[in-house]
Specification:
heterodimer, A: about 270 residues, alpha/beta, Rossmann fold, ten-stranded mixed β-sheet, two-stranded antiparallel ribbon, 14 strands, B: Butyryl-CoA Dehydrogenase, subunit A, domain 2, Butyryl-CoA Dehydrogenase, subunit A, domain 3, seven-stranded mixed β-sheet, 15 helices, about 15% strand, globular, disordered N terminus
Chain lengths: ~270, ~425
């Protein structure tokens, strides 16, 4: 099975307080970057679907990771190659030149070139949280889709039984391949993914795997190609218009009140909640 | 025709002798031999040199890839950055949560060991897999592991250290006999024993004696602070011979070895123990090219790298604590006594890291690094202990409790000045 996994780097959420805004624009210089966590889960899912957990080094399918962005994004792609992906593609662009719709259109063109059996992606990226690319891509391709996957069982690599995380429980759907599947947090549970190769009931370690140190060294020998965005889409018009960015106002210091009467008075006159 | 060839060979030798690259590639010694022996057997040596050159790749350095203009640069390569990121995640997600238990029980949990195996620390130390060996990378690994927990780091690095030493010094026969086991799925545990239970221990004046008996040696003496003392199957033991001190391979099952788990103040997860040897049969590591001072220095640098990692953990812990902890109506970091202490900590930590990096970087490049190692050891031993003490102090009463990790780091960091049993 050949799986295409779109992967995005995002500003490290732990450093959110470092973000500066000047003249209505977010400054990205000096930010630390991490792969979008849901995309990491998608890579892990793709690896689990294309291996026998007993012998993970012998790859039994192909995982292609793709990312949109400047040269620095190569690091994110190399990390994915180090954990086991076979091939990487970087589509050269910048963050402000793309939106969900353009990504979906570009991915459609890429899917037509690469011909994967499955597109696996994170349910959303944690910067914009818009949760649209998977759905749009499936629509543009005319493929079946299953979103918010909490577990996947492969049926002879012809179809997947996907348990979707929905309000108040999970919903099982069967999608025939080729298909688009977006994954949620629970997919990286020990039994989240059942491939056709791994013995039923195998327990994976919780979470995303660590790259072996040797694999990191070997990752630079794996193919990483660069594609121009213009080679995939002729019309780079964005549907999302960015107005201006501003930081939330900082909270003012609180005050101490001496008596209950004073508190009630302030709630009435200043806070106007009574 | 033969004269022409000889002349060609000699001019090649002269050009080699004047070149700068052999230093960078650690080939100066072989080269000088070649030039010294001159026309006698030079061609054989030149071809040997070419073979060595083909075997050795450019060592990756603190500088990353050598740059054409050789600008001063303390960066690391992209791969090293990825190694560091991976290890950092491993330390945060696996080692740190396991540290308290490991400190109390003195053993490495099976789950931690399994996850560590999947990282391939041993595979990375072995040369067979074809990638370049870099002591700077080993240093980064040690540092990041110790940022998670020093005790667990020592436990995991004991076998890696033994492999590093075997790869660096062992004879081809010893390598063939010992290394393949470490490449398997359940590698044996191994360790390095240098320290001895004496006052003012000096690794150059060993009380443990090695006596030659036929092809083998017999070791007699005591070793202390041996990582994994009760579990290690292969021991690399430093001992005094009639001449230079040497390092000896001792199998755990051999007669004449008594292992005493002694318990220690810090680094408890590593199960430090004592080892009594009474005419224990041993095999000498390496041949006449074995360099005992370098062996000791690389052990010292491994401990310095660990101390840097744990000190980093202290710094990262006290900064948010002192910003959040409010006393007398404001965060305690507003007090200069607190702020200056943390600033000193950060400065000294950077100095520790730079000194360690410089020594390791020189070792990687085949340059002498003994002076750099001793400056580093002295500085790191002093400052790491200070950082450990300040870490506890800054947390006040909390620092003294097991609720906070600083008391463990305080105990661990005291090992940096006294322990030797590892190898980069």
């Amino acid at each position: 099975m050949k799986i295409l996994v779109p992967l995005k780097r995002v500003a490290d959420p732990d450093n959110a307080n470092k973000i500066k805004v000047t003249a209505g624009k977010i400054e990205t210089t000096g930010l630390e970057w991490k792969p979008n966590p849901f995309d990491e889960y998608a890579v892990e899912t793709a690896l689990r679907l294309t291996e026998d957990a007993a012998t993970p080094k012998a790859r039994k399918g192909e995982v292609v990771v793709v990312s949109f962005g400047p040269k620095e994004v190569d690091t994110t792609l190399r990390s994915a190659l180090a954990t086991g992906a076979d091939k990487a593609i970087r589509i050269d662009t910048t963050d402000d030149a793309i939106d969900g719709d353009l990504l979906a259109r570009a991915l459609k063109a890429l899917v037509e070139k690469e011909k994967p059996d499955l597109v696996l992606l994170g349910k959303q990226q944690v910067e914009g949280d818009s949760n649209q690319v998977g759905q749009l891509l499936a629509e543009y391709l005319g493929w079946p889709q299953a979103t918010f996957a909490g577990s996947i069982v492969s049926e002879a690599d012809k179809s997947l039984v996907v348990s979707r995380e929905v309000d108040g429980g999970s919903l099982k759907v069967r999608v025939t391949l080729p298909a688009v599947v977006s994954v949620d947090l629970r997919i990286v549970n020990p039994k989240g993914v059942q491939s056709v190769f791994t013995k039923a009931g195998h327990n994976y370690p919780e979470g995303v795997r660590f790259a072996a140190l040797m694999a990191i060294m070997a990752a630079k020998k794996k193919p990483l190609t660069e594609v121009k965005l213009a080679d995939l889409v002729s019309d780079p018009t964005l549907k999302v218009k960015t107005g201006a960015a501003e930081l939330p106002p900082s909270r003012k210091a609180g005050i101490k009140v001496k008596t209950v009467q004073e508190l009630v008075a302030k709630l009435k006159t200043e806070a106007k909640v009574l | 025709m033969s004269t022409n060839l000889e002349g060609l060979g000699l001019s090649l030798l002269n050009r080699l002798a004047g070149a700068e690259w052999p230093d960078r590639w650690g080939l100066r010694k072989s080269l000088e031999q070649a030039v010294y022996r001159g026309s006698k057997s030079s061609y054989a040596l030149v071809s040997k040199l070419a073979r060595e050159l083909a075997q050795k790749r450019a060592p990756s350095q603190l500088h990353g890839a050598p740059r054409p203009n050789d600008l001063f640069d303390l960066g690391i390569s992209e791969e090293q950055q990825m190694v560091r990121d991976t290890l950092r995640r491993f330390a945060t997600e696996v080692l740190r949560p396991a540290a308290l238990d490991a400190d109390e029980t003195g053993v490495v949990a099976a789950t931690v060991r399994t996850k560590a195996l999947s990282l391939g620390l041993l595979q990375q130390a072995l040369p067979e897999e074809g990638a370049e060996r870099s002591m700077v990378t080993h240093m980064l690994v040690a540092e990041e592991l110790a940022r998670g927990d020093m005790g667990l780091a020592v436990a995991l690095l004991a076998s890696v250290s033994a492999v590093n030493a075997l790869v660096r010094w062992a004879t081809p026969a010893q390598k063939a006999a010992r290394l393949p086991a470490f490449a398997g799925d359940s590698p044996p545990l191994a360790t390095v024993a240098v320290n001895e239970p004496t006052v003012l221990f000096d690794p150059k004046r060993l009380a443990t004696r090695a006596q030659r008996k036929g092809a083998h040696w017999l070791l007699t003496g005591s070793k202390a602070l041996v990582p994994l003392a009760s579990h290690a199957e292969l021991l690399l033991v430093a001992a005094q011979t009639a001449g230079e001190p040497g390092v000896f391979l001792v199998d755990r099952q051999s007669a004449g070895i008594e292992l005493v788990p002694e318990g220690s103040m810090g680094v408890r997860a590593a199960g430090l123990g004592s080892l009594r040897l009474d005419r224990a049969p041993a095999e000498r590591l390496g041949d006449e090219t074995f360099d005992y001072p370098q062996f000791v220095d690389l052990g010292i640098l491994a401990w310095c790298a660990l101390a840097v990692g744990t000190s980093q953990a202290v710094l990262e812990h006290v900064i948010p604590y002192c910003n959040d902890r409010v006393a007398f109506g404001e965060p305690i970091s507003h007090r200069q006594a607190v702020a200056f202490t943390i600033a000193d900590m950060a400065i000294e930590l950077d100095a520790m890291r730079l000194l360690t990096s410089r020594a390791v970087c020189r070792a990687d490049r085949g340059l002498s690094f003994q002076r750099e190692t001793y400056l580093t050891r002295l500085f790191v031993a002093e400052k790491a202990m200070q950082i450990g003490t300040d870490g506890v102090q800054l947390l006040g009463g909390h620092g003294y409790t097991k609720e906070e990790p600083v008391e463990r780091w305080f105990r661990d960091l005291r090992a940096a000045g006294i322990a030797y049993g590892l190898h980069l």
